[in-house]
Model the fold of this input.
Amino acid sequence: MKKIHTQIIRLTILFFGWTMLFLPACIEDKGNYTLHDLNEVSLDTLIVSYGGSIGNTLTITPILTYSLGEDSTAFSYKWYLTTSASTTDSRGTLSTEKVLNIVTGGEESLIDVEGTYYIMFQVTNIQTEVCYYFPYTLKVEDRMQTGYIMMCETGADSFDLELISLYDGKLTQYHSILDYFGSSLPHTGVQARDMVCFPDNLSPKLNDTLPNGKTPKQFALWIVTDQYANRVRVEDYHYEPAYNISYQWLGNEIPRDPVSNEIVVDKIVSNSSALSGLKLYCMVNGDWYFYNYYGVMMLFYQPVNYVRPDKTPAYRYTPSPYLFSIGYLGALMFNETDNRFEIHKASNAELSKAISGLFQTKRLDMGAYFDWENPDYSLIYMGNRTDMAGFAVVYNRSTTEYELLQMQNANQSNTTINIQQLSRLVFPASFDVAAVKYWAYHQTQPYLYCATDDRLFKVHLATTMTIEDITEQVLPVGHKFSLLKSTYLRFPRKTLIAAATYDPNGEIGKNGELSFYSLNATTGNLTLAKHPSAPTSDGYQINMQWGGFGKVISVDYKQPN
Done:
């Protein structure tokens, strides 16, 4: 028997204080006109209100009055969903008991997403077939739709999702989301790789509607492991094989897993903050593939590093696994075959060309601070600072120096790509750049943070570069880093540094922590962030630090509303 778990939801139920009696559709005239006293039914309480939070069940206990006294064998009961408060059409039966006591949420529930539901309670006199109708309105608000979602290793070959939910201005931690919702997504016997959230008109749907007739949210949650790249339905984490992103692939040249016949993704990058359109990049077998739904529709088709430069033959270069995603305009990539930076343009015009041929490429104009085509460069890391600004860390073989290159799209209106160089800084020779695993550039302040397994460094970026070890500000004793990320909160609007750590000697699956840090704009030092920044009128304020889950390898902000 499949185990069903439920969402934690807020339920408000209002009864509209009217009864529809003797509806002709409920009575069949059989030609028997013997008169009987009618045992009429009414509802004692005209307004029934259920407030606050309930856990696993929704319970409504109607207080009915029978004019001739209640006879348990004389009446039947039915609760069902309708399209409105004034109709009796059925969109699915909830219960045939007098007291409604049902599971809310879960894959088999008819009440499984937030919204307004209309419930009809039908009482039928079995002998006379007279029906009495009592309509309710149910308002459902989901506590688990918005917040920070984490992909956590719970073992060498297992993972689960954790959620720090933002609801009604407060943050609440929920454990083991996939198990909690009874999702059938395989999350044992696989190794977690990555996870991303973003708005997506092609997000998974089940026959275009949910069982209750509501339309799923246009939001995607993609999960990548060493054996699959799958999507789940964002409302309830429902999964079915058709959600595998192999179905989003038009090209047929990619080798598939011999057992599952699925495409296995190495890495996935989205421009999730560009809410007006989606560009998504997936690396498979060393090639970058591209997905787009805004403007010209393009599912994964062919490698974007398989190009046709201006007036030269087509060729395929080996790309770096890092890129700078430029809003929804495209991306800056690095060509490891020829040691140069490349632009992938994702305008509608460029995509139209690519559908009938190959992606086009054009070399970057000369820059003021560094050479875009330096044959001595090896890319160490590249990523975003903001939607329009990025940075790259390179090793220069000719000088044996590590360099920080900063760039931005000159057209801040987000309409065309015109990459301009901002600066070139050299890391001090004493700093071991090769040991760095994680990079996070603050979006508004000139501070870059980088971490090794067990050290955190603050890099102040001015005309020269200064570096300071600030490990004690963040890392708990005995812990190691598993993630460092600059995160931008839409509400309230501020940038925080997210740091995930784990205790290698702790209990597997419960040895991880996630913390968010505020930055001192003058010193660049980090202090544990509080939510909200100041206590509310009821005194609510908490440290943005949570634990008790597995090793965090990915974190994203889930905001489908």
User: Anything to note?
Assistant: Residues 348-356 form the longest helix (9 residues). Helices lie at 177-180, 348-356. The mean pLDDT is 83. The CA atoms of residues 105 and 112 lie 4 Å apart.
